[in-house]
Specification:
By secondary structure, the protein is α/β, with parallel strands linked by helices. It folds into three domains: 49-194, Rossmann fold (3-Layer(aba) Sandwich), CATH 3.40.50.300; 201-267, Helicase, Ruva Protein, domain 3, CATH 1.10.8; 277-355, Arc Repressor Mutant, subunit A. 45% of the residues lie in helices and 12% in strands. The protein has a five-stranded parallel beta sheet with strand order 2-3-6-1-7, covered by helices on one side. A two-stranded antiparallel ribbon has the order 4-5. One of its GO terms (biological process) is DNA recombination.
Length: 356
C-alpha cells in the first residue's frame, strides 16, 4: 500500500472567530444545570403528594423486607414527571436504571437481550409502554411474574425453547394513554400511579427551584406569572423559565421581575391563559371561521395548516381542560369562555353562557 503522509494544517482564524460566542465549557455547564433541574429524591420532588406518599410506602416496605419492589405503572399526560419518577425510584433503591421505550421494542429478542443484562434489583424503565409490539409484550408477562423468559432457537419443527432465568428486577412503565394498555399487562403491575396536573402554587415552587439551580434571580410574582401560563405542566414551566431568562439577559440585567416575565411571554406568544399561537389559531378558525361550531377536527386542521393529529393531540386537550372547547357528536364547539378570550361577544345559547 502506498504510504499516506499526514499533513497538518494550521489555519489562522480571524480574531473575531477565534473564540466561540459561547465556549464549550459554558455550553457543557449549561447542559449540566438543565439536567440538574430533575429532582433526585422523593423529598426533592415537588407536587403529586398522593403519588409521592404511596410510592414512599411501596419502596419503604420493600426495603425493610429486603425484597425487590412491585412493578410500577405511571400514567398521565406528558411533562408531569414520569421519567423523573422512574429515576427517583432507582435512586431511592440504590440500584441502576436501564431506560428504553415501547416503540424501540419491536421484537421479543430485543426485550430478551435487555432483560438478560439486568442485575438483581435493577430498575427497567419503559416509556410509552402501551406502544410495545405484541411479541415483546407477551414475553414481558412471564418476565414480570416469574422472572423468566423462554427464548426460541431455530425455526419450524426443529425450533427449541430455552428457559432463561432472570435476576429479580422492578419494571417501571410510563404511559400517556393508559386506556391503550392491554388487560394482562395492566394486571401485572403491583402499583399504579396516576399523575395529575400541577396547581399554580406547586408550579411556582418548581420555577423558583429551577431558577435557583440555573443561577437566575427571579421575583416571586414573576415566578407565579410563569407558573400560571404553564398549563399545569412542570416541563412547560421550566421551558418558559429558560426563555424568560434569555429575554432578561438580552434586554435587562439578567434578573427577572414581573414586567420582564410578562414582556418575554408576550414575545414568545404565550398569553395569560397559557395559550400559544396554534391554540389561538384553532380558536380563531372555530369562532371567526365557523361561527363557533360544531366543526370537525379535519376541517380545523386544514384551516390552521396542521395535521389533524396535531390539533387533536397537542391543542385540543388543553383547550377542553381550560373550558374553551367542547367535544360533541357533531364536532368541536367553542364555549363562551373562548369567545370572551378572543375579545368577542358570544351568541345567545353558547355553552357556558351562564358563567358570564
Amino acid at each position: 500500500m502506498a504510504n499516506i503522509e499526514k499533513t497538518e494544517f494550521n489555519i489562522q482564524q480571524p480574531a473575531s472567530q477565534e473564540r466561540d460566542a459561547v465556549e464549550p465549557t459554558q455550553r457543557e455547564g449549561e447542559r449540566d444545570a438543565e439536567r440538574a433541574l430533575r429532582p433526585r429524591s422523593i423529598e426533592e420532588f415537588i407536587g403529586q403528594p398522593k403519588v409521592r406518599n404511596q410510592l414512599n410506602l411501596v419502596l419503604g416496605g420493600a426495603k425493610q423486607r429486603g425484597v425487590t419492589p412491585d412493578h410500577v405503572l405511571l400514567s398521565g399526560p406528558p411533562g408531569l414527571g414520569k421519567t423523573t419518577m422512574a429515576m427517583i425510584i432507582a435512586y431511592e433503591l440504590g440500584t441502576s436504571l436501564r431506560m428504553t421505550s415501547g416503540p424501540a421494542l419491536e421484537r421479543a429478542g430485543d426485550l430478551a437481550a435487555m432483560l438478560s443484562n439486568l442485575m438483581e434489583g435493577d430498575v427497567l424503565f419503559i416509556d410509552e409502554i402501551h406502544r410495545m409490539a405484541r411479541p415483546a409484550e407477551e414475553m414481558l408477562y412471564m418476565a414480570m411474574e416469574d422472572f423468566r423468559v423462554d427464548v426460541i432457537v431455530g425455526k419450524g419443527p426443529g425450533a427449541t425453547s430455552i428457559p432463561l432465568e432472570l435476576a429479580p428486577f422492578t419494571l417501571v412503565g410510563a404511559t400517556t394513554r393508559s386506556g391503550m394498555l392491554t388487560g394482562p399487562l395492566r394486571d401485572r403491575f403491583g402499583f399504579t400511579a396516576q399523575m395529575e396536573f400541577y396547581s399554580t402554587e406547586d408550579l411556582t415552587k418548581v420555577v423558583l427551584r429551577a431558577a435557583k439551580i440555573l443561577g437566575v434571580t427571579i421575583a416571586h410574582d414573576a415566578a407565579m406569572e410563569i407558573a400560571s401560563r404553564s398549563r399545569g405542566t412542570p416541563r412547560i414551566a421550566n421551558r418558559l423559565l429558560r426563555r424568560v431568562r434569555d429575554f432578561a439577559e438580552v434586554h435587562a440585567d439578567g434578573s427577572i421581575d414581573l414586567g420582564a416575565a410578562k414582556a418575554a411571554l408576550l414575545v414568545f406568544d404565550v398569553d395569560e391563559k397559557g395559550l400559544d399561537r396554534l391554540d389561538r389559531a384553532v380558536l380563531d378558525a372555530l369562532i371567526r371561521g365557523h361561527g363557533g361550531g360544531p366543526v370537525g377536527v379535519s376541517t380545523l386542521a386544514i384551516a390552521v395548516g396542521e395535521e389533524p393529529s396535531t390539533v387533536e393531540e397537542v391543542c385540543e386537550p388543553y383547550l377542553v381542560r381550560a373550558g374553551m372547547v367542547a367535544r360533541t357528536g357533531r364536532g368541536r364547539v367553542a364555549t363562551a369562555a373562548a369567545w370572551h378570550h378572543l375579545g368577542l361577544q358570544p351568541p345567545e345559547g353558547a355553552l357556558g353562557m351562564l358563567e358570564f
